[in-house]
Specification:
The chain is mainly alpha-helical. 73% of the residues lie in helices and 0% in strands.
């Protein structure tokens, strides 16, 4: 089996996009006058990166990861709902990161149960 993703690239990328996303989402939310404008999608991108971080997933695994991320993004388990109330872009970004963490853990569990389906 090949090595999982490279933390030296993935984590700095996720952190950088998270910080840039906070700034950008705050600006857009302020300019549009909405607390979580639908035109902001960097939060979804970062959430998916968190979902797939350090996992050598197959194309099917990516699909499963996406579906898990969407599920947790919609359901918003604790503390995702509470994080939405953080100010500006911080709230916009953080709830998706939390959903990504839940999806990541679920995807790891599925990879443990069915490695041939999930992992590449």
């Amino acid at each position: 089996m090949r090595r999982a993703g490279w933390a030296g690239v993935e984590f700095p990328l996720i952190v950088t996009l998270y910080v840039v996303g906070i700034w950008a989402a705050s600006r857009v939310a302020h300019d549009i006058g909405k607390t979580d404008p639908g035109v902001v999608v960097i939060d979804e991108v970062v959430g998916m990166l968190v979902t797939l971080a350090l996992l050598p997933v197959s194309p099917f695994g990516v699909l499963v990861g996406f579906l898990l991320f969407r599920l947790f993004d919609i359901v918003k388990p604790f503390p995702a709902t509470q994080s939405e109330h953080l100010p500006g872009g911080l709230g916009i970004m953080t709830d998706d990161v939390i959903a990504g963490v839940y999806a990541h853990l679920a995807l790891r569990g599925l990879a443990w149960l069915w490695p041939a389906w999930i992992l590449s």
